[in-house]
Automatic annotation (TrEMBL), chains A, B:
It comes from the Bacteria. This is Zinc-binding dehydrogenase. It holds the Pfam family ADH_N. InterPro entries: ADH-like_C, ADH-like_N, ER, GroES-like_sf, NAD(P)-bd_dom_sf. CDD domains: ETR_like_1 (cd08291). It comes from Paracoccus angustae.
Amino acid sequence: MNRDSLELRTTVSADGTLRLHLERVILPEPGPGQLLVRVEAAPINPSDLGLMFGPADLSTLSRDGDALTARIPDAAMPALRSRIGQSLPVGNEGAGTVVAAGPDQQHLIGRRVAMLGGAMYARLRLIGAGDCLVLPEGAGPEEGAALFVNPLTALGFVETMRAEGHKAIVHAPAASNLGQMLARICKADGIGLVNIVRSPEQAALLRGLGAAHVVDSSTASFHEDLTQAVAATGATLCFDAIGGGETTSIVLNAMETVALRDAAAYDRYGSAVKKQGYIYGALDTGPTVLHRSFGFSWSVGGWLLFRALQRLEPATVERMRQRVVEERTTTFASHYTARITLEQALEPETVAAYVRKATGEKYLITP
Amino acid sequence: MNRDSLELRTTVSADGTLRLHLERVILPEPGPGQLLVRVEAAPINPSDLGLMFGPADLSTLSRDGDALTARIPDAAMPALRSRIGQSLPVGNEGAGTVVAAGPDQQHLIGRRVAMLGGAMYARLRLIGAGDCLVLPEGAGPEEGAALFVNPLTALGFVETMRAEGHKAIVHAPAASNLGQMLARICKADGIGLVNIVRSPEQAALLRGLGAAHVVDSSTASFHEDLTQAVAATGATLCFDAIGGGETTSIVLNAMETVALRDAAAYDRYGSAVKKQGYIYGALDTGPTVLHRSFGFSWSVGGWLLFRALQRLEPATVERMRQRVVEERTTTFASHYTARITLEQALEPETVAAYVRKATGEKYLITP
């Protein structure tokens, strides 16, 4: 059995250089509970880009032999202190075929699995069977490539809503792969969802999925439309992947406008309705700006899938995983803009395309 | 028994005029459980100013007979919808002498009480005995005027810290009357406190109270000093009355810097240490700006005394009230810049002075 792999690695050096390269690695034989998987497809999620490129200045991207380098601004270096000199593998999730297995896992050889756990931008991945979902016979690699991050995040939003006592959700930007999954879940489960999109085309896409409340931030009536949709759904919870700018602020103020309409009496401290905003991404890395016309009953915080899953009941998480496998070709189907090899992932022109993070665009690495 | 009172009232009309005036009111006789109190002293807290003046443009203040008027910007009117046309009394807290009482409260006639409940900027206040603290014989009105808002807020910070699992607090701006109380509480109880002040004079004031960690935002070494103090105390909780600007953001970033120093391994999502900022005032009504270099384990929210007290155990709240009365002339002593009458509170020059909200300045109404 050939256990020679090639792994995409990212390294920051003390002098402020980011370096991406492909590293030859010989993996050990799988032990008990382990699988050796030939990676067939792994998506590039925004969360992967954070580790791959960190805060590097991408205008300085250049080739250095087979590697790719870029400069990191001095101001960003303190936050990277703990990764200096470490060659880190990349790729949160992926799918592939089991080519070898520990003595207790021999029955899985030849099966296709979906995997979570990092280091997926590689030819081979040695992984615990518990970090895999075994796909049904006949399922292709693209059906399993992205069954963890986006599907569990979308379901995690709904479970967070339930756990924290909200009845509907506002989501921005809603036309992403994740946003489309959330729209399908909310339609199927009868949950109120306000989809904030950034163009008429995105609005049409969401409406095509059956979304009842789609508001377009590029239109003059955005604030009014948003307020109406918040009133119609009763949403008091928002998930925002943009992060920078005023999106969360605008949503909280719309929620407060609705709450004040319903308020019996004036309260100088604003409504008592708790308004929660979660920032779960950083498509805009600029500052978050909050215009606090929404009283004192509000909270804005970071939301991270892995930490949120730890706060949920194990039975809830298991139910989420089962649903993802069952609905992998419908609710949780991802669509890809392009498929690239590991080598292509290090070409400056290709990098420029996949780091753009355009809503609805998604790249797949097919090692 | 004379039950003629004079109450300071604030009214917003639909055309955008704010009007403050003194209203003659004849109060009913106190019923069971009630006290009629001659108000002797009531502080002007920032929270009172919010109700008195709302978002009025104070450059337009002018007299209209015995009343005072100001214009409210059009953009601010929607948030005031539910108070239009209502003549609202003002003054969260105060102290006075019981001049009449319900049949079951006759023993309190002649006693001095501290009161909470609004409408304290008045000659007389009819109030439930449960909303009063009876002061010991000989206690003057100024000892009782401000025993609720600031003392319970300062103690509320400490109880919030305990309830949410933090071990130390950062407070800004720390030289306020409230900040001085908090410094005394934390010193007495051995709780880590980082005091952010805005001048060398304020720093000296806090150090004079025995505060161990005082950092001055007007100095070049502010960020470095703050980070050191956060490291020394282990603070992961911040209370910020400024609200607008970057104060909370700077504090959360200092907390993250400390957390990353202690982190074993690099995590692209930042440290797992939960950093909590609470905004409990709006000395700066401009937007809150968050530079999110502090990862994803963070939350910023509004904090309001009355809503926080409702979340605490009743026994905890009772213990807080007892401590306030016992330590009214030490831990919880307030200092006043000036004493003014109800009539003076409506003079434009006096208004200009007391709305400045300068740290450490505080006005007392002595009807």
